[in-house]
Design brief:
Blueprint: H1 2-18, H2 23-40, H3 55-72, H4 74-90, H5 93-102, H6 112-129, H7 133-143, H8 145-151, H9 155-164, H10 175-184, H11 188-219, H12 244-255, H13 271-290, H14 293-330, H15 333-343, H16 347-366, H17 369-376, H18 380-387, H19 391-406, H20 413-422, H21 426-449
Helix pairs in contact: 1-2, 1-15, 2-3, 2-14, 3-14, 4-10, 4-13, 4-14, 5-7, 6-9, 6-11, 7-20, 9-11, 9-20, 9-21, 10-19, 11-21, 12-13, 13-14, 14-17, 16-17, 16-19, 17-19, 18-19, 19-21
């Protein structure tokens, strides 16, 4: 009966999220409700480090321990990433990086759809350094969108490839990657180079090809008005060398990583430390440029505010999703899924495909890759342990499908924001994105599992 109750709660939770109920509250309430039912049914509840001695109080002890565990680990990492992203945006470093990256596209004046397709790998590289889907997309809407429309593609074609640049949340600065590497207990740079890049390269190529044909097909029946465009040139108010600041954390993590092992004795950096080092280098850049010590020190508030914003949105979402996952586990959802899959002869491949598609659909419903992955990602170690498989076997396609699903969600912030600027409907963007992302999902499943 437990797995059936878990499925009912999952459906109700998905419906509430689709109706735009607060995801933090929904996941927390669902998780606590499932834990309460498990307690009354006398199922095995997840273990606590320090039980209170009263089962009713223990339900809330789960929240306390989840806060302690998350804030001491992945939570601090994600907050540091969020603060750094906020800071480089305010000082203009993000804009400098985008400005530099967009220059090659102006060479394709007579090949507009090739230029539009090239945006995908180029934007993906930028997304590794600027891991904010809405933030990067808005930067590209300001700088790249008018260029593409002037080259001859429609507004919908331009905005579709811009949103596609955020389809793969990879790199050590990504919140989903940070969570995935902690779950799989692997080094973020090793995971990035040995797992994520080999997977994303063929997927990006497939998306370049599919977007080329999909956008050409849809644009044949659409009148393109190249005059109705936002400002053509996005002015750069800082030195071009500021483009180096957003990629500094990645450079530091690569140079001082186990991949190269260039120092004796070895020097290794974690993501959080790399973010703080890069922040202070950014402060030095600003000090040299402005020569205003007071203003530079005051600008540090942007970093702290960015950390705070990430805590109240992403970190608290991880915590509430962790409670939701504990509720599913306590009702035997995972055991039921494993038993059903094994009875059907699926094994690790079948479960991997099911979980990957489940997260993709959940991201579409929620409009958030973080919410779907944080809800189901923590379940992976228990699944793989039961099947005698490596956690990284399932975690890679699941974390990629989370960000892919967000790109085809009409309620995702990145889709809503870009649609507003481009003056098109969110459903029209999703219609353009659905075929390329659907094909990419199928390719990923075959490439990884078969």
């Amino acid at each position: 009966m437990g797995p059936i109750i878990a499925i009912i709660f999952t459906v109700i939770t998905g419906w509430l999220l689709l109706k735009k109920y607060n995801p933090h509250a929904v996941l927390l309430a669902s998780g606590l409700s499932m834990l309460t039912i498990s307690m009354f049914l006398e199922y095995n509840l997840p273990s606590l480090k320090n039980p209170t001695g009263l089962s009713g109080f223990d339900l809330f002890r789960y929240i306390k321990e989840s806060f302690s565990k998350t804030n001491a680990g992945v939570g601090l990492m994600i907050m540091a990433i969020g603060g750094f992203v906020a800071y480089i945006d305010v000082i203009g470093a993000s804009n400098a990086l985008v400005h530099l990256a967009m220059r090659p596209l102006k060479l394709f004046k007579n090949k507009p759809y090739i230029a539009a397709s090239l945006v995908i790998p180029l934007g993906q590289v930028l997304f590794v350094a600027i891991p904010s889907a809405a933030g990067l997309s808005l930067l590209l809407m300001a700088s790249l969108f008018p260029i593409l429309v002037k080259l001859g593609v429609s507004r919908l074609s331009a905005v579709s490839v811009i949103t596609a640049t955020t389809a793969f949340g990879i790199g050590p600065a990504s919140a989903i990657t940070a969570s995935a590497t902690q779950i799989a207990d692997v080094d973020s740079i090793v995971f990035f180079i040995k797992n994520q890049i080999p997977m994303v390269v063929p997927l990006s190529i497939s998306m370049m090809v599919t977007y080329y044909f999909v956008n050409r097909y849809f644009d044949k029946n659409q009148v393109i008005n190249s005059e109705d465009v936002v400002n053509e040139d996005n002015k750069l108010n800082v030195p071009l060398i500021y483009a180096l600041i957003p990629v500094l954390p990645i450079i530091l993590l690569l140079v001082f990583s186990k991949i190269f092992n260039a120092f004796d004795p070895p020097i290794t950096l974690d993501t959080t430390t790399a973010m703080f080092i890069s922040l202070f280098i950014g402060l030095l850049f600003e000090l040299v440029r402005t020569r205003n010590i007071k203003a530079v020190l005051t600008s540090l508030n942007t970093f702290w505010n960015g950390m705070g914003n990430i805590f109240k949105t992403v970190v608290t979402l991880i915590i509430t999703a962790d409670i939701f996952a504990k509720g599913l586990i306590s009702l035997g959802f995972i055991d039921g899924l494993i038993n059903a899959s094994q009875s059907l002869g699926f094994g690790v491949v079948g479960i991997g495909v099911i979980m990957t598609i489940m997260i993709f659909l959940a991201s579409m419903l929620m409009g958030s890759g973080n919410a779907s992955f944080f809800a189901f990602g923590p379940l992976v170690p228990k699944i793989t342990k039961s099947l005698g498989a490596e956690t990284s076997t399932l975690i890679l396609p699941m974390q990629l499908s989370a960000s892919m699903g967000r790109t085809v969600s009409p309620v995702a912030g990145v889709i809503i924001a870009t649609a507003e600027i481009a003056k098109v409907s969110t459903l029209a963007i999703v219609k353009r994105n659905l075929i390329p992302l659907g094909i990419a999902l199928v390719i990923m499943l075959f490439y990884h599992f078969i």
